[in-house]
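Annex B, item 7. Sequence and structure tokens for protein A, then protein B.
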Amino acid sequence: MRHHNFFSYLPSMKAFPRFILIIVLSYLGGLFLSWWTVALAAFTVAVLIPLPPMRSFLNGFIAVFLLWLALAFFMDVRNDHIMANRMSEVILKIRNPILIGIVSALIGGLVAGLGGLSGSYLRYRKNK
């Protein structure tokens, strides 16, 4: 029985093309469709290019978390932190533009991670 630690589930060089594909599909989906297309992107990649369930979840989660964090940062810098400050005051009750970006990225990461996990389980069931 092989012992797994947390780091064995993180994306490796074998998972890197899947990681980049999730980022590209999520970004393109976000340009033309709704925000939840990140789940469809991670789901599609997990079905077409299989990984174990936990790695599929982390692959989708980390890819979209980093994508949304970068997008939030660039949008925040472009408008001189005005929108992020206001949104953090309304939603989080504190004035912290960085925290609202992290919360947004967490939500996107969870949605994509669950999409990847669902695709991985569909692929797993299909093989049995």
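Protein B:
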Amino acid sequence: MSFLFCTDSLHHIMEEFWSIEEMTNKILTKEEKACERHFELNTRRLKTGRYKVRQPLSDSANELGDSFNTAKTKFLTLEQRLLKQPQLKKYSDILEEYDQLGHMSALCEADVRIPKVLHASSCSIKGN
């Protein structure tokens, strides 16, 4: 028969844990500092409890190129697919719900001239 005795108190164990996990005064790289600054400036908590975070860009949006024509072509293709394939009705309903919740919105002509990245959704259906 053997016995195991533990002499460490919970307090001592927790102190040891936090001393191991404690952040040191690490010198941050330029990118890490920019990341932390972006988080502080662009993250906020909504009344619903969700977080709203602006997507970071490494460089100016102007350097990303023109995504409007690509997004428009993808959108028109998706629109045709939704019209031709009734089984995609659920996907269409999801897009409608996104619009109603404010997760996406239509662009007017003036919005398109402002440099930004546009992304058209793509539809994929899992087989049973």
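Comment on protein B: The mean pLDDT is 76.
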